[in-house]
Amino acid sequence: MSTMLTTNPKLILVFSGKRKSGKDYVTDLIHKRLGPEVCCILRLSAPLKEQYARDRGLDFKELLGSGQYKEQYRADMIAWGERRRKQDPGFFCRLAQRSATQPVWIVSDARRLSDLQWFWTEYPNQTRCIRVEASEHTRRQRGWEFTPGIDDAESECGLDQGIDFDWIIRNDNDAPPLEEQLHLLFSLAEEKAGTETS
Ligand SMILES: Nc1ncnc2c1ncn2[C@@H]1O[C@H](COP(=O)(O)OP(=O)(O)OP(=O)(O)O)[C@@H](O)[C@H]1O
Ligand SMILES: C[C@@](O)(CCOP(=O)(O)O)CC(=O)O
């Protein structure tokens, strides 16, 4: 099925990382820094959670949140999403980008090689891949617990090997400040969006 591309972004920053590594925290920080005119956040999981919540009468906003509510349904959401992806690997990527009009897109939650491949195929010159990393100790402090069937499955491990990330962001207490680590990324985004200040 050919993809009807809605707009032509100048830069697409595709983030991935383990549960509680801080993908939403880091991408929210970038969004605040660059502003809503320049960039928008695309969550691949948002259209999935929206349909899943509708089908089951669940709270969509809570599924988007960072609390424990979504963890009750994670395994079933993963299975539901994978059934869809099996038929059409780009299904959620296309849905997530359909209303994006800003020059810079931030994809906050890539989890599979098929996610990266979709953006690399559709937007080969604009796509950069960034990995957010945090130690298990830090992740546990943020509420993560190893869950068999989730933390050892594709949803969490699909991008652990074989990806040459453009940036690695270390999101631990002993890491350099995020603003420092993100400096070059901010400069690239402002250059691509034509908003750089001299
Ligand atoms: N550098 C940080 N400083 C303070 N709090 C942080 C930092 N990074 C993450 N957090 C907090 O840790 C929790 C998990 O972060 P976040 O939701 O961004 O992780 P995630 O990778 O998106 O997780 P999931 O995959 O479960 O959605 C949140 O409450 C967030 O506010
Ligand atoms: C079902 C799923 O989209 C849930 C993601 O939730 P979150 O990004 O961790 O808040 C994960 C997946 O698609 O494998």
TrEMBL record:
Subcellular localization, as worded in the UniProt entry: Cytoplasm, Cytosol
What keywords appear on the UniProt entry?
ATP-binding, Cholesterol biosynthesis, Cholesterol metabolism, Cytoplasm, Kinase, Lipid biosynthesis, Lipid metabolism, Nucleotide-binding, Steroid biosynthesis, Steroid metabolism, Sterol biosynthesis, Sterol metabolism, Transferase
Q: Which GO terms describe its biological process?
A: cholesterol biosynthetic process; isopentenyl diphosphate biosynthetic process, mevalonate pathway
Give the pathway annotation: Isoprenoid biosynthesis; isopentenyl diphosphate biosynthesis via mevalonate pathway; isopentenyl diphosphate from (R)-mevalonate: step 2/3
Q: Does the keyword Iron-sulfur apply?
A: no
What organism does this protein naturally occur in? Albula glossodonta (roundjaw bonefish)
The protein, known as? Phosphomevalonate kinase
> Which residues take part in binding ATP?
18-24, 142, 171, 181
Catalysed reactions, semicolon-separated: (R)-5-phosphomevalonate + ATP = (R)-5-diphosphomevalonate + ADP
Q: Which residues form a coiled coil?
A: none
Entry GO MF terms: ATP binding; phosphomevalonate kinase activity
* Enzyme Commission code: 2.7.4.2
- Using the UniProt record, give the first listed, main subcellular location: cytoplasm
